[in-house]
């Protein structure tokens, strides 16, 4: 994982060539941070949740690791769930907050950082957010 770096603005951050490297970079509170590499259990849970949601819903699509533009943040939640009519034909980030989001806490992730990201999305249109802590077996 790369060390955090200060970036002046969201626009400057979005022009950086490396932000889509794996794992993706996020821009939260004026700071660029690379997401941690997911563990085996994290990856399996993420895949299973996406598959379950997509198999049960006709109006929404669950997508892994989709960049969202929610000024002045650019989060990349583990899972976003978005109404189909919000997903246009253009490839690129989701403009605005996802309808739902799911974050799966990695062992080395700061829970307060995840909460800030979730609260920002909730205050900008996200209707439902879940924070899953695999180690503590809590949602």
Automatic annotation (TrEMBL):
Top-level taxonomy: Bacteria, Bacillati, Cyanobacteriota, Cyanophyceae, Oscillatoriophycideae
Stored Pfam families: Uma2
Organism of this sequence: Crocosphaera watsonii WH 0005
Protein name (database record): Putative restriction endonuclease domain-containing protein
Superkingdom of the source species: Bacteria
Residues covered by the Putative restriction endonuclease domain: 12-139
């Amino acid at each position: 994982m790369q060390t955090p770096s200060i970036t002046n603005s969201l626009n400057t951050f979005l022009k950086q060539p490396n932000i889509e490297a794996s794992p993706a970079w996020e821009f939260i509170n004026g700071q660029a941070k690379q997401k941690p590499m997911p563990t085996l259990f994290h990856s399996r849970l993420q895949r299973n949740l996406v598959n379950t949601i997509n198999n049960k819903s006709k109006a929404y699509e669950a997508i892994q690791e989709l960049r969202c533009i929610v000024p002045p943040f650019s989060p990349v939640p583990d899972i976003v769930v978005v109404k189909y009519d919000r997903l246009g034909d253009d490839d690129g980030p989701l403009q605005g907050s996802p309808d739902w989001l799911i974050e799966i806490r990695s062992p080395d992730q700061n829970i307060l950082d995840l909460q800030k990201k979730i609260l920002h999305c909730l205050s900008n249109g996200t209707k439902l957010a879940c924070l899953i802590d695999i180690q503590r077996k809590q949602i």
